[in-house]
Amino acid sequence: MRRALDALYDGCQWLAAVCLFMIFATILAQVIGSAAGVYIRGTDAYAGYLMAGASFFALAHTLTRGEHIRVTLVLDRFRGGARKALEVWCHVAAIGLAAAFAWFAWDMVWWSWAYNDVSAAEDRTPLWIPQMSMALGTTVLTVAFVDGLVGVLTGRVVAKAGDEPAHVE
Q: pTM for this structure?
């Protein structure tokens, strides 16, 4: 099971990477087209769809590697059973929020598909297609939070961010 979950998270990471590369390719095509005097319809909309895809596909992988921002100001003050109880509460709350987000994302995909809703931009893309990345990403994020909860309950080490601050300057 562990290998299957890690493969799922890694697969989503690769989908996010493909989305990032496709953003680059889309913008490059737009720049080259502009320099050649050719307007390529829908490139700005597709770059936006791909940005959403990259963001949502990266959520679960980022969580399982301990790279999400966690406010540990309160959590670090607890030890033993109290800390474990607080970790369980945080995971249960996160599961509830992520599951609700996933539910409503899938609901939005369904209604967009049922009503043939298309983008208002020039590309006229059926909206359920780019919305799928949000629905899939939040679903896998929910699975990752459940995986984290199981890890906390069984004593498995859940990924933690390093002590070294991020180098973002």
A: 0.84
Question: Please, which pLDDT band fits residue 161 given cuts at 50, 70 and 90?
Answer: low
Return the residue matching tokens 């809703």.
117
User: What is the distance between the alpha carbons of residues 125 and 135, in angstroms, rounded to a whole number?
Assistant: 17
Token pair, residue 11, equals 């697969």
- Both structure tokens of 134: 């949000």
Cβ-in-10-Å burial (0-12, 13-18, 19+) of 77 comes to exposed
40-97 pLDDT, tens digit each: 888 888 899 999 999 999 999 998 888 877 767 788 888 888 888 998 999 999 999 9
The C-alpha angle 165, 168, 169, rounded to 5 degrees, equals: 115
Angstrom distance (rounded) from CA 136 to CA 52: 12
Element spanning 21, H or E: helix 2-35
